[in-house]
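Students often ask why we bother predicting the structure of a whole assembly rather than each chain alone. The short answer is interfaces. A chain on its own may look different once its partners are present, and contacts between molecules only exist in the joint model. In this exercise we take two input lines together and write out one structure for the complete complex. Read the inputs first and try to guess which parts will touch.
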Amino acid sequence: MSRRVAGALALSALLAMLIAVLAYGVTSRQPDRAIDEALAAGGRQPAPLLALPRLGGGGSGSLSDYRGEVVVLNYWASWCDPCREESRVQQRWHRRIARRGGTVLGVDALDVTPDAEAFIHQYGLTYPILRDRDGGTQAKFGVVGYPETIVLDRRGRIAAVRRGPVDDEFLRRTVPPLLQEPA
Amino acid sequence: VRRLLATWLATTIIAALAAAPAAGASCPKTTLADIEDEVMCPVCGVPLGLAEAPQAERERAFIRSLIARCRSKQEIKRALAAQYGPKVLALPEDRGFNVAAYLVPVLAILAASLGIALGMVTWQRGRRRSRSTHQMLGHTHAFDPAELARLDAELESHER
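Now the answer. The structure tokens for the assembled complex follow.
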């Protein structure tokens, strides 16, 4: 093999590597939309595992603790403005569903604990809240912003997703039918 | 005894008064600008100094509150890592496996410098060797006048 051909091959390999790295960089930054696609196709896929410390101490909590219940999993942060208005809706619905086998489960992400605690106090939140300090769990649920809400049925499958603040209409449409379903 | 006690008391008070401004002068121990370029805005994925997201504003407020409490830069960075996780640090800590992040570039620069130096030495040697070869060739192939005359005669015979 001549030196010129070998040089051209080495250059091509280098270029191919650069393109592969660029492609990986672009695709890895895209949010995972597997959940949304499954829902759009009419399917319910099992929720990923989620285990995190409880906000303000008190051990850890996980999604499996609520197996058999309808879970309204809500990602939020105290610095997120839309989360303020939404937290009132979430609290109202938590009260409404708590006695019927449902719960709102908050996940406070990328937040300072005293700020989050002040937020909880200000809005009188009584539902359980986990703390995801570095936002490490949100990619599993395709969460890219705050607030986002994932609704799980009694069998731990994802039944609905809202990428943005929820309102009464969304929760009325999704949660009561799930409460009627058997575990 | 009274005089001694009074002298001791006066000395103690003067020393305490002199020490107070010195203690005050060491606080604050750092500034927001000094920390901003060494920590990240976790939501935006850029250094905090470049970030304008609401989360970045909260992070700055948290840092300011720690500066006001006279925390050092290292203490503040540790507090940030406790709140947001180690990814909030723009530079990894210089402990354990993370030391590699500092060592590898230094070793790479050293290796590159060594490579360049070796390359230069080899190149210089090569140049010197080829120069001496040329000189040697020059000596061995110097045509003597008799040889030149013979060649001229041969060429002339061909031209005819």
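Check your guess against this: Chain B is about 70% helix and 0% strand.
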